[in-house]
TrEMBL record:
This is Luciferase-like monooxygenase. Residues 20-307 form the Luciferase-like domain. PANTHER family: LUCIFERASE-LIKE MONOOXYGENASE. GO terms for cellular component: cytosol. GO terms for molecular function: oxidoreductase activity, acting on paired donors, with incorporation or reduction of molecular oxygen. To bacterial alkanal monooxygenase alpha and beta chains. It comes from Mucilaginibacter pedocola. SUPFAM superfamilies: Bacterial luciferase-like.
């Protein structure tokens, strides 16, 4: 039986993308405006991703941005997609998210990843002698769970605030390792199919097959992130999407720039190998007018069976970006 889009929660992933001619100071108020619109349009959550040393990504401190957006909204869940846990001491993360959950009860999500969210040189600057912290990721997740537990009240080390609060933990991933961890711990699983589609279906199969029910979740729950550029027509969406294609080309070539304005055609803007690499990363991207987005989303949901979708939209013009999220919401509502 085909899934209906109206049964699927839809959410936002924001990288606080910095566009040409602007700075992060210009970007953050636009994130708040988008979150306020998303709340009105019925989006389920609004997450920020942790990245470092990227001139075109302003979300290096997601915890602060979560507080900023949660403070400017009323009902939408706000969280991290994610906090790169090996970059931080679990106790500090517990205290920070405990503070957020105390300020905005019932609205804070904690998505956790093991990658550095940056290049190796920057990772060394962040982690120092703790460069192998990724190997401790499962243990650090358990530490966080312990700090949030009511049973930790008699421990010598406690998270105040944080202890006893309802802060859902998500495991983020772009590989099969994360799927195994999320399954073993009975936690919800968010996959980065917006940039790492290669192992997506394999990871979902592992997660669903190996899932062990827990106090947090009785059956598997998968959130998938995808790139979405929606516009009033396919032609306009295709044009707007050249910005994200150029953005990903910068990732592929290591020549990052601020998000560029759209161009009329990608012909001549990339070579064959760059095009292949970009299109591989954007395998699940959805670009188009309302009807095209609807058809592609239905096909995606039927193919993957995911429980929730999270749209990320790198669009140069802020009004066009707001319009894209409005069209996407209308499509998802059915």
């Amino acid at each position: 039986m085909a899934s209906t889009l109206s049964n699927i929660p839809y959410s936002v992933l924001d990288l606080a993308t910095v566009v040409q001619g602007q700075t992060p100071a210009d970007t953050f108020p636009k994130s708040l405006e988008l979150a306020q619109l998303a709340e009105k349009l019925g989006y389920n959550r609004y997450w920020f991703a942790e990245h470092h040393n990227m001139m075109n990504v302003g979300s290096s401190a997601p915890t602060i941005l979560i507080g900023y957006v949660a403070g400017g909204t009323k009902t939408i869940r706000v969280g991290s997609g994610g906090v790169m846990l090996p970059n931080h001491a679990p106790l500090v993360v517990a205290e920070q998210f405990g503070t957020l959950a105390s300020l905005y009860p019932g609205r804070i999500d904690l998505g956790l990843g093991r990658a550095p969210g940056t290049d190796q040189v920057t990772a060394l600057a962040i982690r120092g002698e703790n460069m192998n912290a990724a190997f401790n990721f499962p243990r650090d997740v358990e530490k966080l769970q312990k700090y949030f537990s009511e049973d930790n009240f008699d421990s010598k080390v406690r998270a105040i605030p944080g202890e006893g609060l309802d802060i859902p933990i998500w495991i983020l991933g772009s590989s099969t390792d994360s799927a195994r961890l999320a399954a073993a711990k009975g936690l919800p699983y968010a996959f980065a199919s917006h940039f790492a589609p290669t192992h997506f279906m394999e990871a979902l199969e592992i997660y669903r097959r190996d899932f062990k029910p827990s106090e947090f979740l009785d059956k598997p729950y998968v959130l998938s992130c995808i790139n979405v550029v929606a516009a009033d027509t396919d032609k306009e969406a295709t044009r707007l999407a050249t910005s994200v294609q150029l953005f990903i080309k910068g990732v592929v070539t290591g020549k990052r720039e601020l998000l560029p304005p759209p161009i009329d055609s990608m012909d001549g803007a990339w070579n064959y190998f760059e095009q292949e690499a970009v299109e591989q990363m954007l395998h699940y991207a959805i670009f188009g007018g309302p009807e095209t987005v609807k058809q592609k989303m239905e096909a995606f949901i039927n193919y993957t069976g995911v429980d929730e979708v999270m749209a990320t939209s790198h669009i140069f013009d802020h009004q066009a970006r707001l319009r894209s999220y409005k069209i996407f919401a209308e499509v998802m509502k059915g």
